[in-house]
Amino acid sequence: MEPLYDFVIKDEKVHPGALSCRGCGWSLLVRHLASILGEETIYVIPACCFSIIAGPYPLNEIKGSIVHTLFAASPATATGVRAALDRQGKTDVLVVVLAGDGATFDIGIQSMSGAASRGENILYIVNNNGAYMNTGIQTSTATPYGAVTTTNPGAAYKKSWPKDLMGIVGAHNIPYAATGSLAFMEDLRAKMARARDTEGFRLLMIDGPCPPGHKTDPALSISIGRLAVETKMYPLFEIEHMKYKINYVPERNYLVTECMKVQGRFRHLFKEGNEHILKDIQEHTDNTWSRLLEMEKMSHN
């Protein structure tokens, strides 16, 4: 594989400084994404953390064009931008949605599904930080079981499992979808390049470190992201026309507690009497991994 890091160092596509929290995954994600997509790209951004990080008009962190849109409307807006560009003969200009999990798993899932079903030539990036972080850390359907948020505080922690977005997206039989982690940058950049060069609707879901929401040390964002992959809480895989491929198989059988114990949003689960909850989370993670292995096996039959 050709080296993917030199390009970032030599030719930055974002401006210095950002309105993000320390240790935020959004800024690092966009820095690498923009370096691969180039300055002609048009980014469509619904309400999310990055709509703030990019800066209010006339500021713009990215060396590219940004269209801010409504919470539920980013795929629909991107569809219109794509159509206008195609009408002008600018078929080589990329149209990219940058959205959080709230605008993807919840409020925007209808328009996302519609764009995927129509095969719109859009690259959809979802930064999955597991809650509505921009508006005060409220629960979303991406929030992990057991996590504390401002709408599920303390003993009222989230008591339902997160939505399987990748399964939903993959069921649309699109040409390319993949998960990525900022802790596995070579894999992530390769997937970004693959998505750039694929035509049709494609989606990348990135594990998004969020120190305020996850209640973590900002210096540990990448380390925690690596633990999420190693513990199989956030597997790395690709889907191509409903065929699955796992990109990374952990060499050790880490327990989910290794990743959860360094996040304050799970601190309450480590109190005496909650052992059964941690066991349930471990079993759910193991079952999800087993199902993913089976999906990969079926894809090669």
Quick overview of this protein structure:
The chain is of the alpha/beta class and 301 residues long. The chain contains twelve helices and eight strands. Mean pLDDT is 94; it is low at 1-9.
Distance between the termini: 27 Å
Say which CATH homologous superfamily is assigned.
Thiamin diphosphate (ThDP)-binding fold, Pyr/PP domains
What kind of sheet is the major sheet?
8 strands, mixed
Number of strands: 8
How many helix segments?
12
Helix/strand-derived category reads: alpha/beta
Q: Indicate the mean pLDDT.
A: 94
Molecular shape: globular
Strand order of the largest sheet: 2-1-3-4-6-5-7-8
Query: Rg, please?
Result: 19 Å
Shape-level CATH architecture:
3-Layer(aba) Sandwich
String of helices and strands: HHEHEHEHHEHEHEHHEEHH
Count structural domains. Answer: 1
Estimate the helix proportion, in percent: 25-40%
Which stretches are poorly predicted, pLDDT < 50 over at least 5 residues?
1-9
CATH class: Alpha Beta
Strand content: 5-15%
In the CATH scheme, what's the topology name?
A: Rossmann fold
